[in-house]
Give the backbone structure.
Amino acid sequence: MISARKFTAVLLCLLLSNLTALAEPQASGQHAGQIDALIPAAMRNDKAAKAQDELLWNDLLKTTHSGRVRASLTDGSILSVGSDSELRVVQHDATSQQTSLEMSYGKLRSQVQKITKQGGKFEVKTPNAVIGVIGTHFYAQYASNKTTVICYEGQVSVTPLGKVQVLKNSGQNAGNSITVSAGQMVVISSVTPPAGFQPSDAPPGLVQSTQLGTDVPDNPPPTVRPGQVGGGHGLIFIGAAAAVGAAAGIVATHNNPTAKKCGNLGAAPC
């Protein structure tokens, strides 16, 4: 028979463990928002995603070549993830206005609620840049070691990471960040152009194609199987990706005399 002393000790241990769990909730279990709509195939934490799925801290969203996801965060910000993308919601606290996202690759369009609290932040991190916003509408893509940022409304701060440095600043930012205003774009790559990274106007066609390539309607059309009529979404994705790649090449070529001569910044030395 268990003695009263042992029973009391076991009971206290159980109570203390429950109190600890309540006092220190795991970050991965905190509510961040929900998935509003999607075009298959898309996954949340390597499982098939569905509309109305809860979005938690540290959740990983992935889309295939035919997939897109639109999610709303608890502060009212909207994330539209394009095809062939991977995005992690590291943190989203609407009360303190602390949001951190990580995009390993792919395309993301964000409509961000204005940051009004001291110390608040909304950041999107790619492998070679950090994109910070106060409240704006912007597009970010990471592919082929390049981060492309287009600002539709407001202003975006882009800070290169690692060995990539900005030789010239634009706007009013100090240090090594770049301010990208509405209608402008900037491309960050592992090779710094001789004149530094500078924003340039985004071509109207590119602005439209990047918005179309990340748009998710409330009632997506049915999935089209190979051989069926109506597979138009792939053309939108391909067109948007090609347009972004072409614009990135234009910006890089503009800042690189060697590229102008050779005709292709990514080609082997000529």
